[in-house]
Amino acid sequence: MLNKSIMDGDNPDLTEERMKGAFDTDKMAAVIYGSEKFAIRRREITESISRIPQLADSKPFSFMTREEKISESCRKLSVLSEHWNQLIDTNNEEEALHLYREVLGLEGHAFSLHETMFIPSLVAQANDEQQEKWLGRAKRREIIGCYAQTEMGHGTNLRALETTATYYPSTQEFILHTPTETALKWWPGALGKSSNYAVVVADLVIRDTHYGAHPFMVQLRDEKTHNPLPGITVGDIGPKMAFNGADNGFLGFNQYKLPRDHMLMRHSRVEENGTYTKPPHAKIGYSSMVKVRSRMAMDQGLFMVSALVIAVRYSAVRRQGFLDDKSREVKVLDYQTQQHRLFPSIARAYAFIFCGFETIQLYDQLLIDVKNGDTSGMSDLHALTSGLKSVVTHQTGEGIEQARMACGGHGYSMASYISEIYGVAIGGCTYEGENMVMLLQLARYLVKSVELVKTGKSKELGPMMNYLAEPDTQIDLTSGPEAYVKVFQHAARRQVWKATDKFHQLMESGQSRDIAWNNSAVELTRASRLHTRLYIMETFIRRVSSISDVSIKKVLIDLVNVHVNYEVLDIGTYALEHVSSTQLDSIRSQLYSSLDTLRPNAVSLIDSFQISDMQLRSVLGRRDGHVYTNLFEWAKASPLNQTHVLPSVNQYLKPMMDKAKL
Amino acid sequence: MLNKSIMDGDNPDLTEERMKGAFDTDKMAAVIYGSEKFAIRRREITESISRIPQLADSKPFSFMTREEKISESCRKLSVLSEHWNQLIDTNNEEEALHLYREVLGLEGHAFSLHETMFIPSLVAQANDEQQEKWLGRAKRREIIGCYAQTEMGHGTNLRALETTATYYPSTQEFILHTPTETALKWWPGALGKSSNYAVVVADLVIRDTHYGAHPFMVQLRDEKTHNPLPGITVGDIGPKMAFNGADNGFLGFNQYKLPRDHMLMRHSRVEENGTYTKPPHAKIGYSSMVKVRSRMAMDQGLFMVSALVIAVRYSAVRRQGFLDDKSREVKVLDYQTQQHRLFPSIARAYAFIFCGFETIQLYDQLLIDVKNGDTSGMSDLHALTSGLKSVVTHQTGEGIEQARMACGGHGYSMASYISEIYGVAIGGCTYEGENMVMLLQLARYLVKSVELVKTGKSKELGPMMNYLAEPDTQIDLTSGPEAYVKVFQHAARRQVWKATDKFHQLMESGQSRDIAWNNSAVELTRASRLHTRLYIMETFIRRVSSISDVSIKKVLIDLVNVHVNYEVLDIGTYALEHVSSTQLDSIRSQLYSSLDTLRPNAVSLIDSFQISDMQLRSVLGRRDGHVYTNLFEWAKASPLNQTHVLPSVNQYLKPMMDKAKL
């Protein structure tokens, strides 16, 4: 059987779908996860985990309080620590991420920043001596670290950070200090209760000169007692939309002393006498942020996929209403409206993941280049990942919510678990740089590119910017996906130029640079979005073209068709020079046929991601499709049903009703 | 001072905004809430509530478990029961709703279905005798009731409900029965733990003939012990995306006996001998659903406003980045991107509320007409509210999420409370008829309307449908909002006709009615949305035109301008016969100036809703603007900070770190 998820005893409605799949889901998994080898490793790891019963949730996660969620994650981490080496190759980051996700889900845990920000910050920003001192301890998990940058009153604007690290040559110490309430570090993951160390970003001050944001390695809690050290105020910031299994924290310093060599000094330095050496590239301190952003397309793609696994499987099991056969209700997946809700998101998820591969590779390359002293790729990647992060998080949020709504009422229950996935994913619109700010950072790069073209320096354009210098040509819309790329190129070029022109005109009319920029800002964000969506489409098509397996390629081309039709319809108003009202109508018709074409492969396309039931935590998305019985079992097990009559009914409602009867 | 929210000691950033407001917020409240009298009553009620300290939250709601939330609501209901008559005119539904919302918030409570579905069902569907028996008891709250229709396996398709009510003339009883797991009633609010009675919708069966869904009054729990009665399985369905203060429930019957006179018999009847009389109108049983839907534009408008109150106030207090003045960061409300995120939603919220007034009045009129035997308005209102519900819930969800993201990181904290508002509001996309299904119900009505025009029966068109028969004419886009209405009329007309034509052509090509309908479904939903958005825009403009107060009218016209520009840009691709690429560019420029114009009145526009801090439950949205200090206080009070070292750290993390050191 081509679909490897089929098992005896499954809901026949789901097996029927899986039998229709025209390609081998293991082969697709190899495409999705970059190699057959890693796809196999993923399955092996999942299989090994399933043989360790203590790694399973001790009860449904949605029934737990925050304290219970945190405790459950800590318990699992402690079990994991016994099995680490037998489960994964600990030097392989992708294997580690897969393991974390399978065992701990998406909600965060004590080590979530340790792996993704703390260690990478040490790797990128600590010098060799410092790495010698801390990196091994961190990797062995003798200490737990996080990354503390954002403050209560200050987010994306790093220049405004208030926390100071003032250097005193006399004692060769920094004094870390939180001068106001708004200067409290606020939000860092795992800061509140778990971490005993942090990389803290503070404004470096030497002899009254402010050198701006720099990273410092700071011990927060006693290694024996775990109590906060004197001079340190630390705690949890309270419940959030999601990630409630994580202890995002606050942190304040009261004249906290730090030895000189605790400033991370790979790129900038402070000598004993207070002499300051600046980093070779202004943005080099951002590298751990760029790393996280370069992963976001992949991560968000997988969030979207999780929601789609649930929604597509459930849509093959849920029956409602009638089409031709009046003897039995139809699968809701047969409705065009349902396909239109779900399939374009499947296409986007694949596209995001393919983009994610590319940006992760670009980051790895950048890290090598920077080590070799070449920082020239920094601005490119910073711009690309800023835009990508914004577009991908926004579209993922939309897609997940549509997936949830496609599950009707039960989508709203925590039994679907989609709302938790949504909460986690949509956080990405805000963390690691708020989306509007990120779009405007890309816009800065786009405006500069146009200025290069205008001044005859097109040759200096960064990668992916050449289309901005190309002339507008005729497009034959019947020539396939490439024509749609051209439409997108036109739309992006037109908007990038238009926004740049507006910005320039406002300056010429006398507005200051900042005011003119602000008055062009919405147009600039539109330009950034179009540019990024063009990149996503091109990457998707390029990747699919490179595939050799015939049956895999065929279904991916179907997916590309859904994507390009959907995307072009969505941005139609920006490309009216090339698409008329009638053409838009005909693209809509093509979209509906492409949904039809995709229908038989829908379940196999999401099964191919091989996301385990353990990770999904969803009653609706179960691999076996036995939704209803398990929904009832889940509800019966929930805390409120442990007694027939709630204490509050006896205490308040019954006396009230009794009194009313008098 | 024109803005009545100003008080001594407020955050000066907020006071500065309020001083800029060019209109009297009390006067605007009178416009928003329909009359000066009711606007005053609202304030009086809020004021009276504030003098009863037991009605305040005993701790921040977000820190509570589900059990605590439910208990807290029950406690408050019991306090309320002592004060009912002194707080409100109990015959005034709007006063009661205001009271509930102020005291209990949005998260649901034991009486939420009692007031909105249970009593209205008795009013609309019980005959005089039955009302005599139950209505008084319900109104005095001797009993708590809910409305149980949806089943685990069956939502919007009422014909598929599996729960049976079989009549036996021999005993003059119905037997209520749940034949399968999927037939369990699932989702009804307040069913799980609070209610002891329910109006249950079941398939009426007499001598093997199925008469479809009918309402029955059923006792669920013993009035003395509150234990479920024999033959009844009832419980809570578990945690949800939001509304976790409500006990949505499941309900099963095992051959449960019910006397004949417990079927609600105002419209259909079953005689002692089993003779059945059908209702005068097929949809008459839906009237309580239509009632809820007719309220939804108002309710959702208020949800959106709550989020906007928070986001707009916070945006006036939060400072980030620099414009011209480099000495102090600017209010984020000064950014064009922020205005573009928030102001169109303010306009929509006003528009929704004005539409809500109209549909509530239409429902009240319908109820009178139906009592007098005239059911002719039923289909119209059903179609209108179906479309309106879908569009309004979708756009409200979008608006609330944008408001949340406009608050940056802190928007994601439960301290903002916006994610709870979102969860509550977005439920509206699914409850009371899933949005896609609702859009298709309106589409049915639209297609019928086109068929009337095609067959020369334009005179029979329902209200608001005449534009479908009108010819396309030249539009002068410079002539103000009315021109935009014409653009919208064109777009809606074009799409309604196009979708209808597609549907007809597919049938002519040999597809069955149901298949052709499904293959046109996405186009049909687009038609319904455009039609509904036209209605919203027309209602908004009509209402604003009718206002006489000059300063109020002026700012509302500014709001209309934001609205029409934003809306037309959004649907541009459907009206390309009337708006060119260049014109769309110029509408965008107009939109940006209209945002600018609105800027000084933004805070006053949301203050005018006079939503209390108690109801908002938001640290970010506080009237006084003192966000940061209270955010820190809130966090410090949260459960995880009651100890420095969590038990789970001692139990799991510390031993793990210690072991790693060996």
Automatic annotation (TrEMBL), chains A, B:
Catalytic residue positions: E432 (proton acceptor)
Acyl-coenzyme A oxidase N-terminal domain residues: 24-144
Cellular localization per UniProt: Peroxisome
GO cellular component: peroxisome
Binding sites annotated in the UniProt record for FAD: T150, G189
Gene Ontology MF annotations: acyl-CoA oxidase activity; ATP binding; FAD binding; fatty acid binding
SUPFAM superfamilies: Acyl-CoA dehydrogenase C-terminal domain-like, Acyl-CoA dehydrogenase NM domain-like
Pfam families, sorted: ACOX, ACOX_C_alpha1, Acyl-CoA_ox_N
Segments forming domain Acyl-CoA oxidase C-terminal: 481-657
InterPro entries linked to this entry: ACOX_C_alpha1 (IPR055060), Acyl-CoA_ox_N (IPR029320), Acyl-CoA_Oxase/DH_mid-dom_sf (IPR046373), Acyl-CoA_oxidase (IPR012258), Acyl-CoA_oxidase_C (IPR002655), AcylCo_DH-like_C (IPR036250), AcylCoA_DH/ox_N_sf (IPR037069), AcylCoA_DH/oxidase_NM_dom_sf (IPR009100)
Gene3D superfamilies the UniProt entry points to: Acyl-CoA dehydrogenase/oxidase, N-terminal domain, Butyryl-CoA Dehydrogenase, subunit A, domain 2, Butyryl-CoA Dehydrogenase, subunit A, domain 3
UniProt protein name: Acyl-coenzyme A oxidase
The species this protein was found in: Caenorhabditis remanei
